[in-house]
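User: Some background: our group keeps a shared notebook of sequences we're curious about, and every so often someone picks one and asks for a predicted structure to add to the entry. Today it's my turn. The entry only has the sequence so far, pasted here. Could you supply the structure so I can complete it?
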Amino acid sequence: MAEWREGHEWFRRSEEMRATSGDPGFTVDDATPVVLERFRVIAGLRMPDAARSGHVMSCPWRAPGR
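Assistant: Of course. Here's the predicted structure to add to the notebook entry:
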């Protein structure tokens, strides 16, 4: 859980996120309101050829080096 939180906090505090939000002072802490959504997978999709060949797509909110 700590790794998940670290990655999400890194992404939310990134320069890219601040630029997108239009608020250069934006930060995330324990008082930041969040919206949670629950979903259920009802069907799987076939992987593209690149994924089957061992290419792994990167996670956009994962901290560098993780």
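Suggested note for the entry: Residues 2-44 form one domain. The chain has a mean pLDDT of 75.
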